[in-house]
Amino acid sequence: MKTKVDYTLYLVTDRELMSTKTLEEAVEQAIMGGCTLVQLREKTASSREFYQTALNIKAITDKYKVPLIINDRVDIALAIDADGVHVGQSDLPATIVRKIIGKDKILGVSAGCAEKAIEAQREGADYIGVGALFSTSTKTDAKSVSKETLIKIVKEVSIPVVGIGGINEQNVAQLKNTGIDGIAVVSAIIAQKDIKLSAEKMLEIFVEKA
Amino acid sequence: MKTKVDYTLYLVTDRELMSTKTLEEAVEQAIMGGCTLVQLREKTASSREFYQTALNIKAITDKYKVPLIINDRVDIALAIDADGVHVGQSDLPATIVRKIIGKDKILGVSAGCAEKAIEAQREGADYIGVGALFSTSTKTDAKSVSKETLIKIVKEVSIPVVGIGGINEQNVAQLKNTGIDGIAVVSAIIAQKDIKLSAEKMLEIFVEKA
């Protein structure tokens, strides 16, 4: 059966933003601070390294009963029996991914416009990731998406929508009344000195203001 | 059912060695020259690019009824319904790959010593790739394997063994009487001006001399 998902505070990892902590420590602290979902993203690791890291992270997400989504690599998701996969426009097509993972795994798809979001929903996506909402240094290939487009996407699809891209404590209040189900955060949590506190603050502002 | 495989002349692709031809043209000419098996290896492509290339190459291998093996990426192999996957020591573990692909797909595993080869056979490999037999510029992370070790591996496993690494027209005769089932060739075919002729020559020397 498909894992029930709370998209409120979605942590997306980025190993390059880590300084003193290990990725495992960072993820555990983020979950303790209130992250409801974790996406493991590894862009330079070998398959074996990605697999090992994913096993380590899964031990943590399982412990806290938080779903784990693997970015891009469907094979890694299958190898560690993750809860799902997130694909962007440079990854495998959503229809193909759905065929490979079956109906019980979560499939997230990135979309930058209503047309792509509707297409992703039709192709079997369980949720849509929309961004980059704000300027970001962590994902340079993402095009910017306006607040108007975000609201349009929320209205035109029936599945949950998660905002992503440069969301931080200063701008998260701007996502008030957009109707999104959650915020996906990278550096504003994982690159902070106190990861747990940063997650708590983001959650507090988003839940209060959104 | 598992595809019946002739390992005699195993083409392994390397896009970076290509000059004037497209990868599709190169693979077709190599098959016309006698290659019996094709492994698609893409180390820098996005998942979407790898998928598209794999679909294009599969159209050619299907046309000539030559099996297509995908290097490393189990998800790409599943996405295009390739005949199998080849994994090295930096890729997903063989036991995990076998679980994901099922019993009917071909699983190739790289091994540099008898111990690893025996382990790979036990873990479900259909064939072993052994190398680098000669010095090579195309795979800088591969350690060199002596002729003695190659012969030892052939004796100690019951599945087919394919030699790889720097094999060319000048040195292929040295693999005479090693008992290997085939030679995996990269640059000595794909980087040559006349790919078809190069494949024909390699095949002629190997079949005559081995």
Automatic annotation (TrEMBL), chains A, B:
Pathway in which the depicted protein is active: Cofactor biosynthesis; thiamine diphosphate biosynthesis; thiamine phosphate from 4-amino-2-methyl-5-diphosphomethylpyrimidine and 4-methyl-5-(2-phosphoethyl)-thiazole: step 1/1
Catalysed transformations (reactions): 2-(2-carboxy-4-methylthiazol-5-yl)ethyl phosphate + 4-amino-2-methyl-5-(diphosphooxymethyl)pyrimidine + 2 H(+) = thiamine phosphate + CO2 + diphosphate; 2-[(2R,5Z)-2-carboxy-4-methylthiazol-5(2H)-ylidene]ethyl phosphate + 4-amino-2-methyl-5-(diphosphooxymethyl)pyrimidine + 2 H(+) = thiamine phosphate + CO2 + diphosphate; 4-methyl-5-(2-phosphooxyethyl)-thiazole + 4-amino-2-methyl-5-(diphosphooxymethyl)pyrimidine + H(+) = thiamine phosphate + diphosphate
Pfam families, per database record: TMP-TENI
CC annotations in GO: cytoplasm
GO biological process: thiamine biosynthetic process; thiamine diphosphate biosynthetic process
Co-factor remark: Binds 1 Mg(2+) ion per subunit.
Catalytic activity, EC: 2.5.1.3
Residues that, per the record, bind 2-[(2R,5Z)-2-carboxy-4-methylthiazol-5(2H)-ylidene]ethyl phosphate: T136, S137, T138, G166, V186, S187
Binding residues annotated for Mg(2+), in chain numbering: D72, D91
GO molecular function: magnesium ion binding; thiamine-phosphate diphosphorylase activity
Residues covered by the Thiamine phosphate synthase/TenI domain: 9-189
Record keywords: Magnesium, Metal-binding, Thiamine biosynthesis, Transferase
Cofactor or coenzyme needed: Mg(2+)
Binding-site residues for 4-amino-2-methyl-5-(diphosphooxymethyl)pyrimidine, renumbered to this chain: Q39, L40, R41, E42, K43, N71, S110, K139
Function of the molecule: Condenses 4-methyl-5-(beta-hydroxyethyl)thiazole monophosphate (THZ-P) and 2-methyl-4-amino-5-hydroxymethyl pyrimidine pyrophosphate (HMP-PP) to form thiamine monophosphate (TMP).
Family, per entry: Belongs to the thiamine-phosphate synthase family.
Cross-referenced NCBIfam families: thiE (TIGR00693)
Protein name: Thiamine-phosphate synthase
Protein source organism: Ruminiclostridium papyrosolvens DSM 2782
Lineage summary: Bacteria, Bacillati, Bacillota, Clostridia, Eubacteriales
